[in-house]
Amino acid sequence: MILDEKRLLMRKLCREFAENEFTDELLDRLEETGEFDWDIFHKMGQYGFCGVKIPKEYGGQGGDSLDYVIMVEEFAKVSPVLSLYANTSNSLGGGPLMICGNEEQKAKYLGDVASGKKIMIFCLTEPGAGSDAGGTITTAKEDGDYFILNGRKTFASGAPIADYACVLAKTDTSLRGSKGISMFIVDMKLPGVNCGKPEHKMGIVGYPTSDVIFEDVRVHKDDMVGKRDKGFGAAMATLDGGRLGIAAQSLGIAEGAYAEALKYAKERKQFGQPIANFQAISFMLADMATEIEAARELIYSTAIKKDAGDPEASKLCAMSKLFASEMCNRVAYKAVQIHGGYGYIKEYKVERFYRDARITSLYEGTSQIQQLVIANTILR
Amino acid sequence: MKYIVCVKQVPDTQGKVAVKEDGTMDRSKMAAIINPDDLNAVEAALTLKDSNPDAKVVVVTMGPPPAAGMLHELLAMGADEAVLVSGREFGGSDTFATSQILAGAISHIGIEADDVIFCGRQAIDGDTAQVGPQIAEKLGIPQISYAADIEQNGNTLKVKRVLEDGYMTIEADTPCLITCIKELNKPRYMTVSGILEFDKKPYSVFDYETLKDEPLIEADTIGLKGSPTNVYKSFSPPQKAPGRMIAANESGVKELAQELAAKHII
Asked: How large is the average pLDDT for residues A280-299?
């Protein structure tokens, strides 16, 4: 796709920022400690990355989905985990408010989320409700001006560092499945909100994930987002945007792993010559490069169609995530393969890309759920 | 108060140098970047503006129309206004003619008592370091070159200059011109909002028509005709073959001596 001047500048900015600021030292520290790095997060906030897609009138930068995917792609190329830092506020964190929040809620929360002063996360998954998100059993019982939340959310990305969480809870337990679910903004400092122990993950280490437990948490009714009992639809719409972000992250991971493999294939000599001279290696590189180009075109055009209100956008977002996440796993596999034994050693960047790639076909809907979304649309 | 910054788009010297038949560089065949020292100059102006929010940062360049891209980038970094000085009449200018034209353009923008003009020390293509000082001469204002630290107190600037064998700190009153080196600062990035809104900022193109009434702009002081120097030839230096390492031990010394003797060096 031919990008206009602003998009090219956006790419240049994100690329320069990632290449200069995401230092090896920082990336190693994230990997070793697993802890969130506040300095780089605040720097991202200062340059406007946390609010790329949040409208100007609510304190964001007013960019569009294409600006957003370019940012996530460029960041993920250098660090898949740091791409999440600036991603959340623009997708699952700020998304529900942008989609169905009222003016007061947007004014109250979005500005701080866009500038990186506050972190808002999304709590949908429960121990018994993963792909079957409609199986939510966290409840919100009305009590005067308040709702009382009880339940447990799991795999909540960013929970240990969050200021607010957007929580899906059942407000009408008489309705089955995805009906009767509402969405609430919960202040993580409210009495009765507790986080579980951060999970030890295979990849994206440095962006803590944990359970969130709600015990008789009183949330004011003004903090209900969207219509009562209609939260599931809003959550699914939020996930459309989120999926595009994960597709962009997958694309970046693939590009990062491919670049390492390409460099290595030209340097590494076996049988008296660079291994890139062998068809077994060069054809792998050709496939990797081709799949990356295909994913990029799909993701960029989906971003434009989504903003234009294309009725196929939801399906295209699922297709983008399905294709890009599976593609990035294939590319990361080949990148390690090209490195041979060295690719299995932590000193080589492809080892981390390989582990980081694995999450992309799992979170925000597994590949199989994307297939389900796509199949449901084309067979409707 | 204005901070006027002169900038230049230069070929990226990481790539190969393309040369035209007449011996001058073929810029259209080479990737263009903002001259590195000029980025330090822009950062110096933006830093002073951070503590003087009423001040305006105006970036000025002379070059062909594609130089607009560089100006857009500087607006996205935080500059308030951009001026592109561009016209066939200006083509082929050496440092004398270039500084004549830039001084004319700066006069056209207007210099007030509290203004400061910034330039990079030198451009990586010509490496002359002459344009900044020449602009100051032609405008008749003080110049401070090789700035590694700048402090502004009202209409007085205290600047630390880096010399070959030490530092020199001097003061000058505004308006004055400062040339900046890379030790001065670390240029900031563009910002997301800067990129999304650079096209809302004032942007002008000064062609020959715009500037022809400026006293500094005369037919024999600008362009190829106004240039007392001309490029005779430019070329990429031939690549040297990679060196060979000889171990620092007894047999290495022997080997080295044999090699040097064989080449009749010793």
From this structure: 98
B11 DSSP β-pair partners: B32
pLDDT at B247: 87
Nearest CA in chain B to A5: B69
Cα pseudo-dihedral A211, A215, A216, A220, rounded to 10: -20
Is A60 within 8 Å of chain B by CB?
A: no
Q: Extract the residue ranges of chain B whose pLDDT is less than 70.
A: 24
Neighbouring residues of A9: CB distance < 8 A, sequence distance ≥ 6 = B72, B73, B76, B190, B195, B198
* Lowest-confidence region among A135-144, A341-350, B222-231: B222-231
The mean-pLDDT minimum among A112-121, A328-337, B253-262 falls in B253-262
Architecture in CATH for domain A233-378: Up-down Bundle (1.20)
CB A328 within 8 A of CB A248: no
Domain positions in chain B: 2-211
Q: Give catalytic status of residue A364 as yes or no.
A: yes
Task: Tell me whether residue B103 is exposed, middle or buried, using C-beta atoms within 10 angstroms of its C-beta: 0 to 12, 13 to 18, 19 or more.
Answer: buried
Subunit contact B193:A48, Cβ cutoff 8 A: yes
Taking alpha carbons only, the member of A193, A113, A200 closest to residue A155 is A200
In chain A, what percentage of residues exceed pLDDT 70? 100
Span A172-194, mean pLDDT?
Answer: 95
How far is B36 from chain A, CA to nearest CA, in Å?
15
The interface predicted TM-score (ipTM) is 0.90
pLDDT of residue A316: 97
Asked if A17 and B189 come within 8 Å (Cβ–Cβ), the reply is yes
Burial of B113 (0-12, 13-18, 19+ CB in 10 A): exposed
Question: Per residue in A154-178, pLDDT tens?
Answer: 999 999 999 999 999 999 999 988 9
CATH 1.10.540.10 fits domain A5-115: yes
Q: Which of B72, B189, B191 sits opposite A5 (nearest CB)?
A: B72
Could you report the per-residue pLDDT of A14-32, keeping only the tens digit for each?
999 999 999 999 999 999 9
**Which of A44, A46, A47, A49 to mutate to test binding with chain B, by most B CBs within 10 Å of its CB?**
A47
* Closest CB from A5, A47, A51 relative to B189: A47
A3 inside 8 A of chain B by CB: no
Flag if B196 and A67 touch (Cβ within 8 Å): yes
Is A51's Cβ below 8 Å from some Cβ in B? yes
Q: Do A62 and B193 touch (CB under 8 A)?
A: yes
Is a pLDDT exceeding 90 seen at residue A87? yes
Nearest neighbour of A61 by CB, restricted to B69, B193, B198: B193
Q: Is the pLDDT of residue A224 over 80?
A: yes
What pLDDT is recorded for position A254?
98
- Both tokens of A155, joined, read 């795999």
Could you tell me the maximum CA-CA distance found in chain B, to the nearest angstrom? 75
Paired with B203 in beta bridges are B82
pLDDT above 80 (res A260): yes
At B70 the pLDDT is 96
Q: Which of A126, A291, A351, A364 is catalytic?
A: A364
Residue of B12, B195, B200 for testing the chain A interface, max A β-carbons within 10 Å: B195
A-B contacts at Cβ under 8 angstroms: 41
CATH number of A120-232: 2.40.110.10
Q: B16 — phi, psi (to 5°)?
A: -85, 150
Judging contacts by C-beta atoms under 8 Å, the chain B residues touching residue A61 are: 192-193, 196
B2-211 has CATH 3.40.50.620 classification: yes
